[in-house]
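Dear Dr. K.,

Following up on our conversation at the group meeting, I've run the structure prediction for FAD-dependent oxidoreductase from Holtiella tumoricola. I'm pasting the input sequence below exactly as I used it, so you can double-check it against your construct before we proceed with anything downstream. Let me know if the numbering doesn't match what you have in your notebook.
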Amino acid sequence: MKPIKEVDLIIVGAGPAGLTAAIYATRAGLETLVLENNIIGGQVRLSYTIENYPGFESIKGNELADKIEQQAVALGTQIDEFDFIERVSLKDEEKIVETGDYIYKPKAVIIATGANPKKLPIPSESKYLGKGIHYCGVCDGASYKDEVIAVIGGGNAALEESMFLAKLASKVIIIRRYDYFKGEAKVLEAVEKTPNIEIMYNWDLVDVTGETFVDKAIIKSTKTEETKEIPLKAVFGYIGTEPKTELFKEDVHLTSAGYITTNESMETNIRGVYAVGDIREKEFKQITTAVADGTIAALKAEQYITTQKER
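The predicted structure tokens came back this morning:
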């Protein structure tokens, strides 16, 4: 039988939203435990440069993640990144989070597990995953120094990662199925000024080929249906994200796309359970909106826990 531990608050996920919630909750005097099955800092740590976070004209993603983590730890937040979560049961009356080592019974839970990159919808995605199909330029870009590579996507992530990859590759080809981008105009302008980035508007990735590793991309015109091959060594996908809600789908209400529904107080359908950051259904998913979510959830959790103690 695993030891049972009671804590005030468990935060599942240590991205900007989860860590911000931890900072506010710990400052409010709550015994706070953050559980993280992946890297602390979330997707921010994988961003090469961040230029839209207040207080920093420009900062590396890993540096910003380190600063937020250090602030939370200095205040007394406990972060456990090695004890994987096996089971979660979230009810109005009782909340249970079971890991490999413990059974936790928190008074409140904040879900901040974020989202994973969407897989490229091509037949050979799984065959070439890690062999020319990638989803993180910071992680895998160095393997393609002085090579020709492609980026698929139309938002800020695709544009920003293209500029990072352009520092390594001989050429970056952005394959864009429409004649416009959804990213910020300033970021697009910077991409257009980067000499070794080519934008192919109105083309779509159909598949990739190669013996063991990718050596060609097959693309099709979205206007003429023309198909052609491009010699290259890698394709990096940035076509959106999918929420990591597998642990919670039996208890919390989800949208058809799998995101957790909350009100503006970050409250889910379960009392004492909150959702923040990219896991939550909302229009804008930015670092600044994530930390705002974390702030609100921590303050509401503190109110909820205090009310429960007074009963």
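Two things stood out to me. The chain has seven helices and 19 strands. Residues 287-310 form the longest helix (24 residues).

Best regards,
J.T.
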